[in-house]
Amino acid sequence: MARRIEIALRNGVRDARGERIKREIEHFLHLSVEGVRTIDVYTVDAELAEDDLVKAASEPFCDPVIQDWSIDRPVATGFDFLVEVGFRPGVTDNVGRTAREAIEYISGRPFAAGEGVYTSVQYLLNGALSRTDVERIAKDLLCNTLIQRFVILDQAEFMAQGGVPVSVPKVTAETRSQVREIDLNVTDEELMRISKDGVLALTLDEMKIIQAHYRDPAVLAKRQEMGLSDKPTDAELEALAQTWSEHCKHKIFSGNVEYIDEHGNREEIKSLFKSYIQRTTATVRQQQGENDYCLSVFKDNAGVIRFNDDWSLVFKVETHNSPSALDPYGGALTGIVGVNRDPFGTGMGARLIFNTDVFCFASPFYEKPLPSRLLHPRRIYEGVVEGVEHGGNKSGIPTVNGSLVFDDRFAGKPLVFCGTAGLMPATINGKPAHEKHINPGDLIVMTGGRIGKDGIHGATFSSEELNENSPVTAVQIGDPITQKRMTDFLIRARDRGLYNFITDNGAGGLSSSVGEMAKECGGCRMDLSRAPLKYPGLDPWEILISEAQERMSLAVPPAHIDEFLAMAKRFGVEATVLGEFTDTGIFHIEFGERTIAYLPISFLHEGLPPMEMRGVWEIKRHEEPAIEVSSDYTADLKQLLGALNICSKESVVRRYDHEVQGGSVVKPFTGVANDGPSDAAVVRPVLDSFEGVVVGHGICPRYSDIDTYHMTANAIDEGLRNYVAVGGSLDLVSGLDNFCWCDPVQSEKTPDGEYKMAQLVRSNKALYDYCVAYGIPLISGKDSMKNDFYDGAVKISIPPTLLFSVIGKIDDVRKAVTMDVKRPEDIVYLLGETANELGGSEYFALRGEIGNNVPKVNAEAALTRYRALHRAITDGLVASCHDLSDGGLAVALAEKAFAGGFGISADLKSVRWSGDSTEKNDAVLLFSESASRHLVTIRPHHRQAFESVMGECGVSAIGVVTEEAVLRIDGLAGTPVINERIDELKQAWQSPLREL
Amino acid sequence: MAKARAIVMTGNGTNCETEAAHACRLGGFDDVVIAHISDLLAGEVRLDNFHFLNLTGGFLDGDDLGSAKAQANRLKYAKVDDLREHLLDQLTRFIADGKLILGVCNGFQLMVKMGLLPAFDGRYLTQAATLTFNDCGRFQDRWVYLKTDSASTCVYTKGVAKGLYLPIRHGEGKFVVDSQATLDTIEAKHLAVFKYSDSSYATPTMEFPLNPNGSVNAIAGLCNETGRLMGMMPHPEAFVHRINHPRWTREELPEEGDGLILFKNASEYARKNLL
Hints:
heterodimer, A: alpha+beta, CATH 3.30.1330.10, 7-stranded mixed beta sheet, 31 helices, globular, B: alpha/beta, 7 helices, 24% helix, purine biosynthesis (chain B), Class_I_gatase-like (chain B)
């Protein structure tokens, strides 16, 4: 019988978790509670000696200084309502897993099959609350009913029942191992029903291609030999659906597009990916000639560039949007630990050196009504921030750079970008570490976690819009510790040369990882009955496509398998041989003796013809807002500093360990009080060297409302100018693109698909134009194309969003520069020109306007200036440097001043203007978001040297740093248009998100 | 010549091993070994061969049962494969041999929860204090000023004039004791080596964020009466060079970071007393 162990804090011990819940109930649900206390519950479902159970309760589960324990005796007293929240069956329970291991150490024997420990938390609420209030607290705050369940009891019920009844969330399905066949000789309607009901996300055309395959006599003859009929098995259909999903196959980026511009000119584009993204890199590499530093691009889980003779740098950024919309904590946690496996599974494997995160949310203060399936943006914010916090911190990888971007359209789907960089030796055992090969005969080995029903249909589900019926099984919860153990082990196996090939088990599970690996050598034979399962009851197709986390797939030569498995055992990591790689040309899957999938590799990977799409561009004119003329813009500046896209994100950033591994050089916050916003991060990955990695990013979805071409140009420029601002070298720099789009394929559900496709085409064109102009090769990237919510009535599409990440090198980190002003008397220079470009700006957004004059990037002029700036930084001439972005010059001046703790006195008359001089006025000069600009400060004695390095690059001295802690900006009329103490400005900037 | 040897124990979620080993090398240890706990449990690496044990920061077992609890349990019950002894036996022998242990962050949590600190009168393995959730309820990464107790017998802080400036990075760093008597003894014996303080290292403080977790008496680090065992929440290994400092681009700083002295003192002590 299952036993309940309860762990409660002793009287008088502060319950920080309870206090936080109390604050959140008051803050977000506007209910007043007197107090919240918490109790941890372990439900132990295992045959244990009483003595061992007491040891478990009193030693590992209980901290004797602050806690008491009890077994099968409820300890809750003195509450008005009690809510107990536990996991649903089959959901990953990390604490339960650790608790089980702790008991195994005590009892000295492993748990038997079916035995387990399950955790839950009791919240004891006091206050004048109704049951309805408590239900709201349970559903809207304490429990995500998708993955958790709750029990509510008042004091009387609790007494009557003798506490919370024991409940064991064990998966109790029977072992079935069924294989079904699906008859595809049916009507078109029936084909679509099969696709839809099965969450296969296959279109009618795709279903018909599969139908045709199973009518091919040659195929059928081979199948007959294997004992298979003319009908596909469920495993085959699922493998095809997974491999052909938008998520895995990138059909939109590899399809054919007929593009028509605003003048009616037609253009045939064969694959956006090949035409723009791959071609960008090819062109840049050609330009670089001998200096080409790309080592492995677009062919592995992450991109690889040369860092120096001894080390190679690996980088990947992924999104995990759909799962985060359903379960913000689990989805985001899986996002970060999932992207960790990309650099880890690149080449022969890389040590992970930092994470970057960018989140796009609707306002946490959102007050409009939401469709029922959508979680409130504040819950998404909380859950995502915490999920990535746990995933990153517990993995021991510093989170060094990121952003929070707000737009209410992200209520339809939040965007959760997680990036990870790694470092691998240039060579391992004499071979380039970024390369790997499989030989037929190598064994298929899966390591790490076990397989469960979690994450079934993740790949296909995220290839559709979010809707009422999005499947609950699509959500996984990551386990950073299981993954850390696995990576500790695999790095050692790598260095001993025990495997030939490694890759990640992510979307699509074994079907995807082994399917991709089989392509390398020409086939595989895998027996799914050998796969370790979390619990019985999985059908073979579920084992094949489950996205249960923390797994890597490897090719291990038979000669090394004994050593590999022995080492895994010693590290406490599960490793299982599932079959072997072959050169038969067949993706051959068995379950025991029986063949359950027999798919030609060529059909699996090449059987899908390119999608045909159309994009029609039109220029949408927005109303051009009149710019208010005023003699004082101080209030506008303060309002801007408090805008969600500009204000301080310190309350979030401090929750992320940005210093672990000891290499942090430019931290997220800088300045006299460690609270000024850094432009980019500098990290020293090898501690006895001063060579550093620089990482920054650009993202500006608001400009998509005007033109995605310029949105993209600005994102690239912003990424690069952030990178340059801290000292990043232009001689070793690369880019990584992450497209997050709303569905751009014309259909009944998407009547404006042709416009959205044109937006995508234009974004790609800019990507090519600007990366080539800047000499930035793209080394990797990802696209997520279905970021919409649609429930049949309400449709919410995100604004087309490109995250452009920039990663490269600084030769000597001791030359790095931060954004805070350093000393009074230093001269303030503005680099670059300002134009009437308020279109899509934060200044217009404050007024609910968009405008039309989107900032345009002049890459040639910018690159010349960035090179000169880098020279000035390398020469040690630059005291501080900050990029101008959201909010323009006024915001950048304010941030520089309050970060450094000094004032600035500046004059708008000295700002270099570009364009029609009649459009020049104080508001435009202050708030225009013209691209490619930096603010730097220079010690007076460096003035001449600095100006001579910068030459004709569009540089003007616009002011001076002052002892007096005031930001004073004189307007064109010669009188101050902004005049405010820096502590007031800082307060405006820090207050909006400080308490979250 | 005999070598001063340091070991950094890793595995199951520790994550500061690289920089801890780097700090040991910079501090003057001749041999520094990063040993996975599986190497120790397999008997391939033995604590007996080292002078200085580093229990580093991280998230042992994900802090799932409370920080470091599962590792404390593992060390107590896990047997070493070939020697028929528990790993704990090696650890107690290590202490009895007069050797050095430094626990940082998760390592400090482990030492306290195993009862290695404060361990009055050599009563090791009896827990008298703990480290629990920060009062602010959140993980925090921020730099703190640590006033050192110059009257302490601590081996590591010898020569520290006023205090150290170091980063903390934890969610469970609030130091709590089981009784007033324990606290009084800690204070009377000058065991609270580090206290969160104002920026001039003048007075200990309970004020957030200077005191980032609400620790009783602002205690950030603790040693035992021998001065050889020390645990602390802040990370000395994270500040060994001036460019680790959050304001290195604006302040005149010595080349060496504040945290390095702890490792230098450890190696010096090992050389004088343990070789």
